[in-house]
Design brief:
With 424 residues, the protein is mainly alpha-helical. The protein has two domains: 68-95, no CATH class; 115-393, Rhopdopsin 7-helix transmembrane proteins, CATH 1.20.1070.10. Helix content is 76%, strand content 3%. The chain has 14 helices and five strands. A three-stranded mixed sheet has the order 3-2-5. Strands 1-4 form a two-stranded parallel sheet. Helix 7 runs antiparallel to helix 12 (331-359).
C-alpha cells in the first residue's frame, strides 16, 4: 500500500528475519546434532528410544512452525495465487495455535468452586466472626506500625524502614486470601473465576517470596548493627536500604508472575472443585490434564533460590551475631545486644515454622481438614503476631507509641479551650 520505494524496508525486514529467525533455527539445529550424536552413543535400544521420545514433541513443533512459516513467506509468488496465499496463511495460523494449545481449558466451567470449610456447616458463621476479628487486628496492627514509624523521626532507621515494608507485605499477604474466605463463609456457592484464582495465587505467592527476602535484609541489618556498629550508617545508607527493599519486591514479583503464567497456561480438565479455601499451587496443579513435573521442578528451584537461600543467609547472619555477642565482656552488653535481635528472630521462627508445617508435612500423616487448618494458621498467625512482637518487645516502638498518644491528647486538649472561647 506504500506510495514510495520500499526496497530499504524490505532489506531491513530481511536482515531482521535472518538475525532473529534463522539465528535461533541454527541454534536449534546445532542442539539437535549434539542430541542425536549423544543418543546414538547410548548402549541400549530402550535408552535411545526413551531419550528420543523426550525430544520428539519439541522437534514436531519446530518442524511445524518453521515449515508453515517458510511455505507462507518463501513460496515463489509466480506459482501462487491470492487465494492460495490466503489459505496458506490461515493454515500457518491455525496449525501453530492448535499445537500450542492442545485441548483448550477443559474445565467444565469458567468458574472454580473452592470447597474450603464447607464441612463445618453451621459452624462457618462462628469461623466468620473469629476470622473477621483477626483480620481487623492484622490490618490495624500493621497499619499502626507503619504510621508510628512514618510519624516519628526517631524511628527513621534502616531497621524500621524494612519493618514498614514487612508490614505492607503482611497486609497484602493476608488480604489476598482472608476477604474472599470471609465472603465464602457466608454463601453456599463458593465460586471464583479462573482469572481471580490466578490473581490470588500470584499475589499470595509473591508476598511470601517478598517476605523471605525482607527477613534476610533485616537479618543483614542486625548483623551490621552488632558486628560493625561503627560502620552501620555507612554500610546501610538510604540508597542501599532502598535497593535491598526494591530487590526483595522485584524478586518476589518476577518469579511468581512467571510461575503463575506457566501454571495457568496449562489445560485444566475434570472437576472444577478445589478442596481448599484459596488458590494455592498444589491444589491448582492437580487440575491440570498434562504432566506437571516440569513446573514442580521449577517450583523446587524457586524454593531453593528464593526461600531457602534467604533462610541460609539469615542463619549465617545469626551465627556471626551470636559469635560477636559471646565475645562481649559484660553480661549487660550481651543481654542488650541480644534484645535488639530477639524480635526479628521470633518473626523469622514464626514465618518459616508455619510455612514449613504447611508445605512439608508428609501427606500420609495429614488429612484434608488438617491441611486446611494448617494453611489457615500459616495465613493469619505470622501477620497477627508480628506487630505485637515489634510493639510489645521493642522499647523504641513503645516509646514512639506513647509519645504519639501524648501528642494526640495534648493537641486535642489545646484545641478544646479555643473552641470554648470561640463559642463564648
Amino acid at each position: 500500500m506504500a506510495c514510495a520505494d520500499t526496497s530499504k524496508n524490505e532489506i531491513m525486514v530481511f536482515t531482521v528475519s535472518v538475525e532473529f529467525s534463522l539465528g535461533p533455527f541454527l541454534l536449534i539445529l546445532l542442539s539437535y546434532i549434539c542430541i542425536f550424536s549423544t543418543i546414538l552413543q547410548l548402549p541400549s535400544g530402550k535408552g535411545r528410544r526413551k531419550a528420543f521420545s523426550t525430544c520428539c514433541s519439541h522437534l514436531t513443533m519446530v518442524t511445524l512452525f518453521y515449515g508453515t512459516a517458510l511455505i507462507t513467506y518463501l513460496l515463489p509468488k509466480s506459482s501462487s495465487s491470492l487465494e492460495s496465499d490466503q489459505m496458506i496463511s490461515l493454515m500457518n495460523t491455525m496449525v501453530i495455535y492448535s499445537e500450542n494449545n492442545p485441548g483448550e481449558n477443559k474445565t467444565t466451567s469458567e468458574m472454580l468452586i473452592l470447597v474450603g470449610f464447607s464441612y463445618l456447616a453451621n459452624l462457618q458463621s462462628l469461623l466468620f466472626f473469629g476470622l473477621l476479628v483477626i483480620y481487623l487486628v492484622i490490618l490495624m496492627g500493621n497499619l499502626l506500625v507503619i504510621f508510628l514509624i512514618k510519624l516519628n523521626p526517631s524511628l527513621h532507621t534502616p531497621m524500621y524502614f524494612f519493618l514498614v515494608n514487612l508490614s505492607a507485605s503482611e497486609i497484602c499477604f493476608t488480604s489476598s486470601v482472608v476477604p474472599q474466605l470471609l465472603a465464602h463463609l457466608l454463601v453456599e456457592e463458593k465460586t471464583l473465576s479462573i482469572a481471580g484464582c490466578a490473581a490470588q495465587l500470584c499475589v499470595f505467592t509473591t508476598m511470601g517470596l517478598t517476605e523471605c527476602s525482607l527477613l534476610a535484609a533485616m537479618a543483614y541489618d542486625r548483623y551490621v548493627a552488632i558486628c560493625h556498629p561503627l560502620q552501620y550508617t555507612t554500610i546501610l545508607s538510604s540508597q542501599v536500604c532502598a535497593l535491598l527493599a526494591g530487590a526483595s519486591w522485584f524478586i518476589g514479583l518476577s518469579a511468581e508472575v512467571a510461575v503463575t503464567i506457566w501454571i495457568f497456561s496449562l489445560p485444566f480438565c475434570g472437576s472444577s472443585r478445589i478442596p481448599h479455601f484459596f488458590c494455592d499451587i498444589p491444589p491448582v496443579l492437580k487440575m491440570a490434564c498434562v504432566d506437571t513435573s516440569q513446573i514442580k521442578i521449577l517450583g523446587f528451584f524457586v524454593t531453593v533460590l528464593f526461600i531457602m537461600s534467604p533462610f541460609l543467609l539469615i542463619l549465617l547472619s545469626y551465627l556471626c551475631i551470636i559469635s560477636t555477642i559471646l565475645k562481649l565482656p559484660s553480661a549487660e552488653g550481651r543481654r542488650k545486644a541480644f534484645c535488639t535481635c530477639s524480635s526479628h528472630l521470633m518473626v523469622v521462627t514464626l514465618f518459616y515454622g508455619t510455612a514449613l508445617s504447611t508445605y512439608l508435612v508428609p501427606k500420609s500423616s495429614s488429612t484434608t481438614d488438617n491441611d486446611l487448618l494448617i494453611s489457615l494458621l500459616n495465613t493469619i498467625v505470622s501477620p497477627v503476631l508480628n506487630p505485637i512482637i515489634y510493639t510489645l518487645r521493642n522499647a523504641e516502638v513503645k516509646g514512639a507509641l506513647r509519645s504519639t498518644v501524648v501528642k494526640g491528647i495534648f493537641s486535642h486538649s489545646r484545641r478544646n479551650p479555643r473552641l470554648k472561647s470561640r463559642d463564648s
